[in-house]
Amino acid sequence: SLSLSLSVALVGTVSGSGTLTGSLAGGAITSDIMVIMYGQSNMTNMTVTGASAPTAVAGTRYFDGSAFVAVPGANGVREILNGIKTATGRNCDALNGAIPGVTIDALSKGSPNTYFSGLAAQINAAGRANDYIIVWNHGEGDSAQGTSEATYLTSLDTLHRDICDVVGKTKAQVPLFVSGLGNVVNGIGYGSNASWENIQRTLIDSASLPNTFYSHSNRDRVTTDDVHGDGASCGRSGKRFARSITTYLGATSGQPHWAITSSAVIDATTTTVDVAHSLGTDFTPTTGITGFEVSGDNGGTWVAATGVRTSATQITLTHASLVTTSNR
Questions:
Q1: Gyration radius (Cα) of the chain, Å
Q2: Secondary structure letter of residue 295 according to DSSP
Q3: Is 100 exposed, middle or buried (0-12, 13-18, 19+ CB in 10 A)?
């Protein structure tokens, strides 16, 4: 398992071209920007899990289902809202409808359960916002089910539309930002290694959907119980969401896109990675490349690595001694 700090780059619109317009019909405006958080338990943790969380900046609030309250002392939601407010100067609120341990179909409109209707009820109870943004972290349940990329993306696109219908807007007016999963430590209950990687690829490919953007990787997530991220990991994800959103809104500059497409274990202290990047035909520096981390236990712990250019699309990493099995 590998991570790269530069992989926080936004896939999709990387410069300020986003325009948000429209609102729910009727009623007074209660929010300027409302961030709708949805997905599985790792998204739930974004408003629950804290570890020395930053102070919530003035102009940010959280809707708890019945009223606007102070932003919870959780790293994820505070980093999202603080980042947007600080970069744009606009007041920013959030609500969270995530449900642990379910597939995308269970979260969708028309499911026999009440998850989607519960989210819709929260949105309506919060009142009208000038603008809405959706952030999505999900996939563990569909890895366990072995859901195909085509099926998942169709469901995600439909879900995006259905949320937009709730707020009375089009998908072009309500961008959807998707993040990747972490790495499970022992894959029990989450499908095979192959299905896990398939859902990771699917989340990246969500950028092919209209008005949907792959915001960032969470491969560097440090887990507390094999799958759920700790407070610091939630905070990193929150910062990455905020950077992608503010890039879309033109308040920050987009970073060049990097993505690891494959890797190979060479020996205990050497790993090569093949990368896709948007830096022209080659990249610099060619030595002393930093920002990579490598795990020897499928994401449980990480060590820093230093890279050198092997070719325009490959980097050789040197790091502390790690196992040479598929757990790297």
A1: 19
A2: -
A3: middle
Distance of CA 135 to the CA centre of its chain: 7
Taking the C-alpha atoms of residue 22 and residue 20, their distance in angstroms, rounded to an integer, is 7
Long-range CB pairs of 204-209, under 8 A, 24+ apart, other chains included: 204/11, 204/180, 204/259, 205/149, 205/153, 206/153, 206/156, 206/176, 206/178, 207/11, 207/12, 207/178, 208/153, 209/153, 209/156, 209/157, 209/160, 209/176
What is each CA distance from 18 to 8, 72, 89, in whole angstroms?
A: 19, 28, 16
Structure token pair of residue 186: 């022992």
Average pLDDT of span 123-146? 95
* pLDDT given for residue 206 in this prediction: 95
First CA to last CA distance, the chain: 5
Most confident of 1-15, 36-50, 294-308, 314-328: 36-50
Task: Write out pLDDT tens, residues 258-295.
Answer: 778 889 999 999 999 998 876 778 888 899 998 888 98
From CA 234, how far away is CA 93, in angstroms rounded? 18
pLDDT at 256 exceeding the cut of 50: yes
Chain centroid to Cα 146, Å, comes to 20
C-alpha angle 223/228/234, rounded to 5°?
Answer: 85
